[in-house]
Amino acid sequence: MEKLKISRDDIHLIAENSKWTETGANKILNDYVYSSAASWQRFLKILFISLGGGFTVSGVIFFFAYNWEDLDKFAKMGIMQFLVAASAAVVLYPGISLPIRQIVLTGASLLVGALFAVFGQIYQTGADASDFFLNWTIFITVWVIVSQFPPLWLIFIVLINTTWLLYARQETGWPSVFVYAVLFLFDSGATVLFHWLSKRKKRISVPAWFLYAVTLAAVYFSTAGWIIGIWTGLEGDIIAFGILALSSVFLYLLGMGYGWKKKNIFYPAILSFSALLVLFSFCAETFISSVEGEVFLSLFVIVCITGMLFALIRLQKKWKNEKMKR
C-alpha cells in the first residue's frame, strides 16, 4: 500500500465527522503520521555522526589556527594530507554503511578546503580568494557526483556561487546585474535538474529541503538583480537586465505552475514575495522623492502584503480541503 500524505489534523477532522473508532484513528496515526522507534534511532544516529564530523573538521581548523607558529610547514601539510587520505580510506572500507560513508566524504570535502587554505598560507601563493574556492570546487567534484548526498550537493553549489561572486568582484568590472543574472540562471538550472532527477532516477533521492534551499538562492539572486537594475539605472547593461527579466518571468511562471500542480504553497509564496519586492523597489524609486509618495508607498506595501498573505492562506486551505476530499 502506498504511503499517504496525510496530516494529524486531517485524521482528527475525519474522526470527528465519521464513525471512525479511536483505535482505528490511532492505527492510522501510527502508520502514516508518527515516526517509529526505528526511524528515530536512525535519525539520531545520523544526527550525532554528522555533529561529530562537523566538530572534528572544526577542531582541525582551530588546531592549526592555535598552533600555527609551533608547527613546521612539512608537519602542517603532512597532517592535512593524512586526514584527507584517511577520510577517503574510511569511505572505501566495505563494512561501513552508506549514510556514514556519505557523512565522512562530506567531512573530507571540507578538509580539502582546509588543505588548500593551509597550503596558501605556508607558501603565500598570492592567489585570489576566487582561485582558492575554484580549486576547492574542482577537487571535490568527483566526490560530489558519486556521493548522492544532498548536504554535499548543497556545499558544492555554495562553492560555485561563491567562486563566481568573488571572481566577478576581484577580477572583472562586470555589472552586478550581469553577475546576479548568471547566478540566477545557474541556481534555477540546478533546481530544474534536481527536480528532474527526483522524478526520473529512482536511485537518487532529492529531499524537499534541498530543493527549497536552491530555489531560495535562485529567487534571491533574481530579486537582487532586479532591485539593483532598478535603482542603478541598469548600469549601462541593458542586455543583462533584459536576459534577467525574460528568464525570471519565464521561470517564475514555471515555478508557479509547478507549485499549483503539486499543491505546494512554498513556490507561490516565495515567488509572489519576490515579485512584490521588485514592485516595491520600482514604486520606491519612482515615488520616494516626496512626502505624499512615501505615504502612498507605505500604504501600498501594507495593502499588498496583507492581500498576499490572505490569498496564500486561502489557497492553502483550499488545497488542504481538496486533499481531504480524495
Question: What would you note in describing this structure?
Answer:
The chain is mainly alpha-helical. The chain is built from 13 helices and no strands. Helix 12 (about 265-285) packs antiparallel against helix 13 (about 290-325). About 20% of the residues are buried.
Strand-pairing-aware structural class: mainly alpha
The N- to C-terminal Cα distance equals: 16 Å
- Average pLDDT works out at 81
What is the global morphology?
A: flat
Portion of residues in beta strands equals under 5%
Number of strands: 0
Poorly predicted spans? none
What sequence of helices (H) and strands (E) makes up the elements?
A: HHHHHHHHHHHHH
Helical content band: over 70%
Radius of gyration: 25 Å
**Discrete helix count:** 13
- Major beta sheet summary: none
Q: What keywords describe this structure?
A:
326 residues; mainly alpha; flat
Give a summary of the structure in a few sentences.
Helix content is 82%, strand content 0%. It has 326 residues and is mainly α.
How is the secondary structure organized here?
Layout (H helix, E strand, L loop, with lengths): L7 H9 L5 H11 L4 H30 L6 H20 L5 H26 L5 H11 L1 H7 L2 H22 L4 H25 L7 H24 L6 H25 L3 H22 L3 H35 L1
